[in-house]
Recover the amino acids of this structure.
């Protein structure tokens, strides 16, 4: 028993759990390989996860030509990359949201971002359900205690609270995705709050992607008016929870 505890503290996943995570990783790699094999022979060295606005503009310029001729491959490749990043909590999805606006416009871009962000969040939710408990305790012990207490306190109107978290930057989305199954947030509540709650931020980011050349930094996305609007929407979503608590 003591040996098992020591092994768990050094490497928080059992071999079976680690194998499951590797299997998920390989499935994403297989999907990307399938997209690559259906594309024409060319130099794809420009294909990398953007880390700066300059990287993103280069990627946008190179992909615009492929988007019209190989729309399905670009869409599938985009979805796989975005869902992969969400599943494994890789930073940079804001650049992918900007790219959606630059390549597909506002309405198609928002629909694409909400779909891929929800699919990625769901994938992260179920991956965490399988392997997440020791990881989340290692990475975010204090946040987890706070989140667990809030979920328990707001169980009767949990959807409103989850919507509030999605709309406002109270807790990071990566943490919400990974910790929700650990604190027993039902999947249907998680799913609905994700689909609806991500729309405002997705709209702001995708719309900014259309005028990508005018952005000087990622900070330009969220000016005072945008943040105030998101908090206002968040207050509206959580109001029924507060009112219900006072009535009871």
């Amino acid at each position: 028993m003591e040996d098992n505890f020591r092994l768990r503290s050094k490497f928080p996943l059992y071999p079976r759990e680690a194998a499951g995570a590797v299997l998920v990783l390989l499935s994403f790699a297989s999907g990307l390989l399938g997209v690559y094999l259906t594309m024409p022979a060319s130099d794809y060295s420009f294909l990398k996860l953007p880390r700066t606005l300059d990287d993103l503009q280069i990627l946008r310029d190179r992909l615009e030509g492929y988007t019209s001729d190989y729309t399905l491959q670009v869409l599938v490749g985009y979805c796989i990359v975005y869902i992969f990043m969400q599943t494994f909590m890789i930073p940079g999805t804001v650049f992918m949201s900007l790219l959606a606006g630059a390549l597909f416009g506002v309405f198609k871009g928002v629909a694409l971002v909400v779909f891929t962000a929800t699919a990625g969040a769901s994938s992260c939710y179920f991956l965490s359900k399988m392997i997440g408990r020791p990881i989340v305790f290692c990475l975010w012990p204090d946040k987890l205690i706070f989140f667990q207490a809030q979920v328990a306190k707001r169980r009767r109107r949990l959807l409103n609270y989850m919507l509030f978290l999605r709309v406002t930057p109270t807790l990071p989305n990566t943490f919400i995705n990974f910790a929700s199954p650990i604190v027993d947030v039902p999947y249907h509540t998680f799913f609905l709050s994700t689909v609806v709650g991500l729309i405002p931020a997705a709209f702001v980011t995708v719309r900014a992607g259309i005028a990508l050349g005018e952005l000087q930094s990622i900070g330009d996305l969220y000016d005072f008016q945008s943040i105030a609007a998101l908090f206002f929407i968040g207050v509206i979503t959580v109001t029924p929870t507060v009112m219900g608590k006072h009535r009871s």
